[in-house]
Fold:
Amino acid sequence: MNDHFNEMTNAQHEKGRLDPDKIEAEILANERTFLAWVRTSIAVMSLGFVIARFSLWMREMSSSVNPTMRVRPTGISEALGECMIGLGGVLTAFAAFRQPRCDFFAAAYTSERTTA
Structure:
């Protein structure tokens, strides 16, 4: 009896196979990971927007303090902010690309488990 139990336990824990009792936890972990990617991309895009607007704010402040002061029209903050906004968009696209694949593999494993 004990040998039969060990064989079943080893068969259930083969490499690349999920424990049937933990499939729901795996699906929920995939959802949390997706939401973390989206939350991170929103934060990166928001920071990029703030950095891009910083140059505009600096120009406005310098012209109001001293209207005769010459302000450089180019700066790195606008370009850096736009790059960060683009990076946030790429992160969102990556998360959207990755999520259906994780759901597909979890669904395939669940349907395989119920038919066997």
